[in-house]
Amino acid sequence: MADRYPLAKDVAEQIAQRLGVSTSYLLCVSIEDEDTLHQADQIFSELSKHAVSVSESYVNALKDRDDALTIELTTALMKAVYYQQLESSSCLE
Questions:
Q1: Which residue among 6, 55, 70, 93 is least enclosed by CB atoms within 10 Å?
Q2: Are residues 53 and 16 in contact, defined by beta-carbon separation less than 8 angstroms?
Q3: Would the pLDDT of 4 be above 80?
Q4: Spatial contact of 60 and 91, defined as CB atoms under 8 Å apart
Q5: Which residues does 1 contact at the CB level (< 8 Å), separation at least 6?
Q6: How far is CA 8 from the centre of its chain?
Q7: Which superkingdom is the protein from (predicted)?
């Protein structure tokens, strides 16, 4: 709700239960503190390298879900970029 209307914890608990996610996933989704931004920047920096220099096990180990939407979206985007680079480089061989 774009942080205009705070989500009550009891309502968040009920919604989270129906969605099968943690309550903090709903309550902390818009976190943009220094630690969150630093973690998103690290993911971006690491996966911005050429795909050959980053191990696939490292990429697979990155969590797809995070309470902070900034990290979750950064991870999804950069994994997509990584796998697209792998596909492009295999086409060139």
A1: 93
A2: no
A3: no
A4: no
A5: 7
A6: 24
A7: Bacteria
Yes or no: say if 27 and 12 are a contact pair by the CB < 8 Å rule. Answer: yes
For residue 6, pLDDT over 60 is answered with yes
Distance CA 70, CA 32 (A): 7
Tell me which residue has tokens 């989500």.
7
- pLDDT tens digits, residue range 41-88? 999 999 888 777 888 888 889 988 898 999 999 999 999 999 888 876
3-state class (DSSP) for residue 87: helix
Give residue limits of the domains in the chain: 1-29, 31-92
Type of residue at 79 = K
